[in-house]
Design a protein that fits this description.
This protein has 282 residues and is α/β, with parallel strands linked by helices. It is built from ten helices and ten strands. The protein has helices at residues 9-12, 20-30, 78-81, 85-92, 103-109, 112-129, 145-148, 150-170, 211-216, 274-281, and strands at residues 2-7, 37-38, 45-47, 52-55, 71-72, 96-100, 134-138, 177-179, 262-264, 267-269. Strands 1, 2, 5, 6, 7 and 8 form a six-stranded parallel beta sheet that branches. Strands 3-4 form a two-stranded antiparallel sheet. A two-stranded antiparallel ribbon has the order 9-10. The radius of gyration is 17 Å and the shape is globular.
C-alpha cells in the first residue's frame, strides 16, 4: 500500500530533523501486512539558512532516500496544495493520503470558510486523479497564538467543524475519508512561532499508533450537502498575506523529546495509525 504525506512545516521538517515521516516509515516497515511505501514528488527538508526546501540533512542516517518522498512545504496550506494534488496523485499513485493542513491558511491567507472550500477542492481534485483514493485528515492543531488571539482561535475551531462536516458529507464507499482524532492538549510552552514545527527527535508521537483513537474515537459530524468547488479560492480581500511558501518567516521549533510524547507548542501530537485507518475504511 502506498501512502503520501501531505502537509506544511510540521510534515516537511527542516535540516537536522528526524521528521514524523521517518517515524511513520519505521512503523510501516514493522507492520506485518506490507509491503508499504511512502510516495510523493518531494524528498527534501527546509533549509533555514537558504530559505529553501533544499536540504537532505536528515537526522536519521537509516532513512532511505526512497522513503523520504512526500508532498509538503514550509509555509504551504490547502491553498497551495489544492492545485498540486491531482498531478501528484496521478504521477505517484498513492492509495492513501495522510493530510495535515490548515494552520498556515488560517494564520496568513484565508478565513475558515474559504479554507474549507480549498480543502474540498483538494479532495475533489484528488478524486479526479484517483476515484478510489482514501484520505485521512488531521484537524488543525491550534498553536500558541490561539491562546491570546480569540478571533484566530474561533477561526481554528470553526474550520475544524467545517472540515468534519465536509468529511461526513463527501465520504463515499468507493473513496472513504476519515477525520483523525484531535490530539490532546497540554500545558502551553512559551510563544515562539505562528505554526508548530517538528524538530530532531520531536516527531515520534506525530505518527505513534493509536488504534483506540481510530476505532473508538473517530470524529464524524453531521453532513451539510453541497457541491465542492473545483478550484481553490483566492485569499480574502480583507487579508494581506505574505509571499507564499518559504518566503514566510520560518517558525522556530521546540526542544527535542525522542521516544516520548511529542509536545509542539503546547500540543501533544498523537494522531491515528494509518493502517488502522485503512482497516476502518474497508
Amino acid at each position: 500500500m502506498r501512502f503520501m504525506c501531505v502537509g506544511d512545516s510540521m510534515t516537511i521538517g527542516r535540516a537536522g530533523d528526524f521528521t514524523w515521516r521517518y517515524r511513520m516509515w519505521q512503523h510501516l516497515e514493522a507492520a506485518p501486512d506490507g509491503p508499504h511505501e511512502l510516495v510523493g514528488p518531494r524528498t527534501t527538508l527546509y533549509d533555514a539558512e537558504t530559505n529553501t526546501a533544499s536540504s537532505s540533512a536528515y537526522a536519521a542516517a537509516d532513512f532511505p532516500p526512497a522513503a523520504r518522498r512526500h508532498l509538503a512545504g514550509w509555509g504551504e496550506g490547502w491553498l497551495h496544495m489544492a492545485p498540486l494534488i491531482a498531478d501528484a496523485v496521478t504521477a505517484h499513485r498513492p492509495d492513501v493520503l495522510l493530510v495535515s493542513l490548515g494552520l498556515i491558511d488560517l494564520g496568513f491567507y484565508t478565513d475558515s470558510a474559504r479554507t474549507a472550500e480549498n480543502a474540498a477542492a483538494f479532495l475533489s481534485s484528488a478524486r479526479e486523479a484517483n476515484p478510489h483514493i482514501r484520505v485521512v485528515l488531521l484537524p488543525v492543531i491550534p498553536n500558541i497564538r490561539a491562546e491570546t488571539d480569540a478571533p484566530f482561535a474561533a477561526e481554528c475551531a470553526h474550520f475544524n467543524t467545517l472540515l468534519a462536516k465536509a468529511v461526513a458529507d463527501l465520504d463515499t464507499p468507493g473513496s472513504p475519508l476519515l477525520l483523525a482524532s484531535h490530539p490532546r492538549r497540554t500545558t502551553s510552552t512559551p510563544p515562539r512561532t505562528t505554526a508548530p514545527t517538528p524538530t530532531p527527535q520531536a516527531n515520534t508521537t506525530s505518527q505513534r499508533p493509536s488504534r483506540t483513537r481510530c476505532t473508538r474515537h473517530g470524529s464524524w459530524a453531521p453532513a451539510t450537502r453541497g457541491r465542492p468547488p473545483q478550484a481553490p479560492a483566492e485569499p480574502s480581500r480583507r487579508e494581506t498575506p505574505p509571499t507564499p511558501g518559504p518566503a514566510t518567516a520560518p517558525p522556530r521549533s521546540c526542544e527535542d523529546h525522542d521516544g516520548a510524547n511529542t509536545v509542539e507548542h503546547g500540543v501533544t501530537m498523537a494522531p491515528i495509525d494509518p493502517l488502522v485507518a485503512v482497516e476502518r475504511m474497508d
